[in-house]
Amino acid sequence: MSGREGEGARRLRVLVLAEAANPEWTSVPLIGWSLTNALSKVADVHLVTQIRNKPALLRKGWTEGADFTAIDNEGVVVPLHSIAARLRGGGNQAWTTVMAFTAFAYYSFELQVWKLFRDRLMANEFDVVHRITPLSPTIPSLMPTKLAKLNVPFVLGPLNGGVPWPKGFRHRQYAEKELLSHIRPLYRLMPAYRSTRKNSAAIISGSTFTQSEMPDWVRQKSVFIPENGVDIDLFNNPRRANASLPLQAAFVGRLVPYKGADILIEAARSYLKAGSLTLHIIGDGPQKQLLLQQVEALGLQERVIFHGWVPHSDIQAKLRDCDFLGLPSIREFGGGVVVEAMALGVTPIVADYGGPADLVDDKTGIRVPFGDEKSLVEGFRSAIASVTQAPELLNDLGGAARKKVLQSLTWDAKARQMLRIYEAARAGAHDLRALGLEGGAQ
Question: Exposed, middle or buried by CB within 10 Å (0-12, 13-18, 19+), for 19?
């Protein structure tokens, strides 16, 4: 989609591959849409996505053919997803199993992309091809090798995923049915694994863990930029009240074992009973009944409020009334809700692991180190104690968090970061680290 900003030098023509890109969904599809939409403001973008996203894109005012192309590979996707669903046993669990089958379905997507766009790529109609989704580093691409022969730069990422399960949480790993995590390194044997990395002009890692997994022979053309961003038009009404007792805390996310809502309730128990804290649980999932039983057994029904599933567009109204976000998730890849809380000036208190630990520093929130479940509970209990004893700390941290988001973690900021990467890729740069974008810096 052509951008709406002023005249000037010719804008870059970018073919965006985002198999998952949907403004009405959350998680990966929302990332695919949000970054593509931001890019459309600063470059001439044509999006190629899967057909299931077509209705939502049309409702957003995008025109099929001119602004986006919908690939119909449902004949491959549906059977593979059906097999994965049976193997995972239903529910929002066993995501490693789902991703294993998604990898094979994605090959069919790119084969259709090449068939439809080969002639236009050979005619130099696009300056850059950028694959945004899938995010998983385990899903290779067939495009880089083909495009290298045409001298069209291929940009890959943000890639993110595969953060190891902490050793002290095997019981939660098995509760999530994540048995395939043990053999995840075999993805390096996937067809096109090596050629994807060798022939990409630039690779964006969405987490420091993914960056650490990059082979030495591609490290120079890889840069770490956090996976998530925030739509500042959607999260535009920041928290204004000064923190005071009783504090309002929020947990936002799926109610599944690795997210740790039960850990947060246990850590906050004495403060909830004392009336110095109210906890808002925003989300739904298979663990909800266990959480309700936990709250009832502790006699905390008046202090722990379950809001159920809330549409993404309504999260701001719930979250901005809170003083801090508690997220003891022990295997969070990106942490989109952390960025959203920061954008509202709501202080994040997070487990010091995975994506949230990349987003939060000592000036913008509290990171809780841990080695096992007991130390995680104790760490969160200590963090909650510190903010109940000095609520004004939340005002300073929340203000700094919002400032950081506005500077480098909005989708518009990320689009500007991508433009610099595109230009470097077109110029044949061999070391993206020289751009100074590490960590999402401007």
Answer: buried
Residue ranges of alpha helices (H) inside 123-199 are 143-150, 170-175, 193-199
Order the strands of the 347-351 sheet from edge to edge: 304-308, 277-282, 247-252, 324-327, 347-351, 366-368
pLDDT tens readout for residues 305-345: 999 999 999 999 999 999 999 999 999 999 999 999 999 99
In the chain the first and final C-alpha atoms are separated, in Å, by 24
List domains and CATH numbers for the chain: 13-229+410-440 (3.40.50.2000), 247-407 (3.40.50.2000)
For 84-125, the pLDDT digits (tens) are 566 555 555 545 555 566 677 899 999 999 999 999 999 999
- List the structure tokens of 303: 């202090």
Q: What are phi and psi of 129, to 5 degrees?
A: -115, 130
- Other beta carbons within 10 angstroms of residue 419's beta carbon come to 17
Residue 132 to residue 33: CA distance in whole angstroms: 9
Count other C-beta atoms under 10 Å from residue 73's C-beta. 19
